[in-house]
Amino acid sequence: MFFYHRPRGRIFYYPHHQKVNRYPQPMIFCPFPADWPRREAYAHYRRNPCSYSVTQRVDVTALRRSGRPFAPALIHAVCRTVNRLPALRMTEQGGVPGYWDEVCPAYTVFHPSTGTFSVLWTDYSPDFADFLTQYRADVERYGDDPAFFPKGPAPAHVVNLSIAPWLDFAAFNLDYGRDYLLPVFTAGRFSEEAGQVTLPLAVQANHAACDGWHVAEFFRVLGKELER
């Protein structure tokens, strides 16, 4: 249940705060200003491509005991965290670096009879109840369809998350293209010890988009989200 998705088709540039109604939620591309502090680092790592992965165990005790459906709740917590950190929403349009004002999650649905999976995506809402309603509707409508993209290709403003409940890993690495700037997340099997439930969560990052500090900030904010 691991996947990498690179948006297909043409690359569009949208001026700051111009809404595009191609998808149920508009994509808004926000260019970085000319004095963006990471502009030199970005240019360096675009010339010299570099990606890295970080795996950390995250405490999901509160989430596990909350009674909320685990997979959509974890997906929502990750996406909610990413939507608080512009560096993890970075993209490039027409050679201009910037970020999506908001991203939605793309996730996998496993088909046990064939050992394959499909990729779905659901519009994001900061309210979990609203998101869960949309998530359930998508899974109900498309979850049994064996096509790789049963809902259609995901829009460009998605963040990819896959859950591999068969694996409890210490490290996980994906090799993806230099032009894909958004992070990719992979969660593994949870385990319980002394009343604490944890699982491994891997972040694959493009160094042009974010540094170790940004990934550390992601884990810090996610920890607070998971305690909510």
From TrEMBL:
> Which top-level group of life is the source organism from?
Bacteria
Q: Which residues form the active site?
A: H207
- InterPro entries from the UniProt entry: CAT-like_dom_sf, Cmp_AcTrfase
Q: Output the PANTHER family linked to this UniProt entry.
A: CHLORAMPHENICOL ACETYLTRANSFERASE, SLR0299 PROTEIN
An annotated Gene Ontology molecular function: chloramphenicol O-acetyltransferase activity
> Organism source for this protein?
Deinococcus radiodurans (strain ATCC 13939 / DSM 20539 / JCM 16871 / CCUG 27074 / LMG 4051 / NBRC 15346 / NCIMB 9279 / VKM B-1422 / R1)
The identity of this protein, by name, is Chloramphenicol acetyltransferase
